[in-house]
Structure formats: C-alpha cells, structure tokens
Design a protein that fits this description.
It is a single chain. By secondary structure, the chain is mainly beta. The protein has a single domain, classed as Lipoxygenase-1, CATH 2.60.60.30. Helices cover 14% and strands 38% of the residues. It is built from three helices and 13 strands, in the order E-E-E-H-H-E-E-E-E-E-E-E-E-E-E-H. A seven-stranded mixed beta sheet has the order 1-11-10-3-8-7-6, with no helix packed on it. The chain has a six-stranded antiparallel beta sheet with strand order 2-13-12-9-4-5. Helix 1 packs antiparallel against helix 2. This is Tellurium resistance protein.
Length: 223
C-alpha cells in the first residue's frame, strides 16, 4: 500500500483536518529538523582534501556559529489544566499518562539525523483543548535565517503534515509553529509560523503563551 502523500501547510492552505485524513487515534510524531551551520562546516572539514583545503575548512568550522534549537508543546486541556513539554526544566512529559505528550531527546547541535521529536497520544485527544507547537533558540547567536528549519507531523500509518519555518525576520529567536485544536467537531492542525524577537519582551515561553492566551505561569528553568 503506497504511503500517503505529504501535505504542506502554507499561507495559502494553512489548515488541515486530521479527522478527514483518518488520523483520529494512535501516536503522531512531531519532528524538528534544521541545518546546523557548525555541523555542516565540520562535515566539510572532514571531507576536505589537501593540507590547505583542510586548513581552510577547519577555519570555517571554527568560525561557524553554534545554535541549539528546542522544540516544545504548550498544552491546555479541556478541564482547564495546562502544562508544557520541553527540554528546559527537564519537562519531557509522558505518552502513557498526563499530559500524553512526550519529547524523546534534546538535540543540542542540529547534527542528530533524527532531529528532535515530540510524540502526541491521540487516544487521549478528547482531553486536549489546544496544543501549541513552538521552537526557540535556547543557545547560540543570530536568528533562524539560514537554518532551514522544518517541522513535520507524521501519523503511525505515514500521513505527513509539514510546516516550513520560512520568512524569518531579523533577530527572530522563537516561532509559534502550529496550533492543534478542535474546530467544528474535528481535530485541526493550523499553520502559525508566528515569529518572536527580543523586542516582544524577555522570557520567550511567557511571551508566546500570553500571545495565545494560554494562561500559563512561568518560572526560570535550566537543562
């Protein structure tokens, strides 16, 4: 049986119903992948030939910026409870118990082939009111430009829904990627790609949650 075609969520077609695709139960994986400038430079250094080629590639590798992107999910439940799943604060969540969302690992470099992954248990979708997927720069210089960041949601049978984090403005250090919520009785993924910069205020999670009226309270965390 052929794998279902990927669906790109774009400005022109920003939303898709999971119900209409038959994705109403089981696990859905949310993958973040990006091109690390430093990892690319290190690969180039390893493939360089000749003494001067290796020296030049090594210098480019040393100068390439380090960046650590983090994938997270803010969760508001039907009963009013709310939480977040993210590497910061070691809030990795759980698939089998509340909040029924879990982060598998923290990719600190962008060199991990599998990227960073969240898993959402749709067997408990009745408990969800809103799931806001977001990405931010935890550590590193610059913004999202040149990172080619992509978030892909994949069902157990292979349905794929893709959001490209494009049109990044200067200094953008965070992005609200997609909002999953119930709409007219169906579970819908909506493309957001809403960028946040330092001008929006300190504490990126707090800024994002206030922008989406999620009513969360935040305390400093570390990982």
């Amino acid at each position: 049986m052929p794998e279902p075609a990927a669906v790109d969520l774009t400005k022109a077609a920003p939303a898709v119903s999971l119900d209409k695709h038959g994705v109403t139960s089981g696990l859905i994986r949310v993958n973040l992948n990006w091109a690390s400038p430093q990892a690319a430079a290190q690969r180039e250094a390893g493939e360089a030939r000749g003494l001067f080629g290796r020296i030049r590639a090594s210098m480019r590798s040393a100068a390439a910026r380090k960046v650590d992107l983090d994938l997270g999910c803010m969760i508001r439940c039907a009963d009013g409870s709310k939480t977040v799943v993210q590497a910061l604060g070691n809030a990795f969540g759980s698939v089998d118990r509340f909040p029924y969302v879990a982060l598998d690992a923290d990719d600190r470099t962008g060199a991990r082939e599998a990227g960073e992954n969240l898993v959402i248990n749709l067997d408990h979708q009745a408990e969800f009111q809103k799931l806001l997927l977001f990405v931010y720069i935890y550590e590193g210089s610059g913004d999202f430009r040149g990172l080619d960041a992509v978030v892909t949601l994949t069902s157990e049978r292979g349905d794929r829904f893709r959001v490209v984090l494009d049109e990044c403005p200067p200094q953008a250090h965070a992005c609200a990627v997609a909002l999953i919520k119930r709409q007219k009785g169906e579970l819908v993924i909506g493309r957001e790609v809403r960028w946040f910069t330092p001008a929006d205020g300190p504490g990126v999670q707090d800024v994002i949650s206030r922008a989406y009226r999620l009513g969360m309270k935040w305390t400093p965390g570390r990982k």
